[in-house]
Design brief:
Layout (H helix, E strand, L loop, with lengths): L5 E7 L3 H10 L5 E6 L6 H7 L3 E4 L5 H11 L4 E4 L4 E3 L3 H8 L7 E10 L2 E2 L7 E8 L3 E3 L8 E3 L3 E3 L5 E6 L2 H21 L6 H13 L1
């Protein structure tokens, strides 16, 4: 049975270190769309070598930039990956089976994290992320931090497929990212005039640690 055609969509900025592996692992896509925001390294050359359709647009925020790339795609089914995310071996077969007469509006792929020098074991708990979806029924949301795809319809998890987030190479890069995310979350809370209660500050850290 023929599967639905799909476009791989990636946004980039100076991702030469990881983009090669990202695109090579997903080269079964019917189209590759790369929207760059002004890289000064070999990012665009790598994308072009993989046959990607490459465009450049200044980065305004993660959600809008991703949505812009999604709208560039020729196919309605979208595989949405970051430039430092790599499909694991065997994921191709699972995705292609899922796109044979799909009844869901989207599919979650479990994500394994690489923290510095170690990759999360495939038998450990993996959070699912909606990365394969029908853009006629979904789009990026407008959440300021960790914007993600939302769809109107059922979503299934492809448990036997996953991808690896290559993460950060050192502690300094990790701390910088955490600071950027936390600043964005605080700004969002203030914009919506939400308060951080004392009880929340006392309860949330130990609950998160146990989880």
């Amino acid at each position: 049975m023929a599967r639905e055609a799909f476009s791989l969509v990636v946004i980039t900025f100076n991702n030469a270190d990881t983009l090669e592996r990202c695109l090579a692992a997903a080269d079964f896509a019917d189209e590759i769309v790369v929207l760059d925001s002004g890289s000064t390294d070999a990012t665009r050359a790598i994308a072009e070598r993989h046959g990607a359709r490459v465009a450049v647009h200044p980065f305004d925020d993660y959600g809008p930039q991703k949505q812009r790339a999604i709208e560039m795609a020729r196919h309605d089914w979208i595989l949405n990956l970051d430039a430092d995310e790599i499909l694991s071996p065997g994921t191709r077969e699972v995705i292609e089976r899922a796109l044979e007469n799909p009844r869901a509006a989207g599919f979650r792929l479990p994500r394994r994290e690489r923290m510095f020098w170690s990759v999360q074991h495939p038998w450990s708990h993996r959070n699912g992320h909606l990365r394969l979806f029908d853009r006629r029924r979904g789009a990026m949301n407008r959440v300021p931090v960790h914007a993600a795809v939302e769809v109107d319809g059922p979503v299934e998890t492809l448990g036997r497929a996953d991808f690896v987030n290559m993460g950060d190479d050192d502690i300094a890069a990790r701390v910088t990212k955490i600071n950027r995310y936390s600043s964005g979350m605080v700004a969002d809370k203030l914009a919506r005039r939400q308060r951080f209660s004392g009880a929340m500050m006392l309860v949330y850290p130990p609950v998160f640690f146990v989880r």
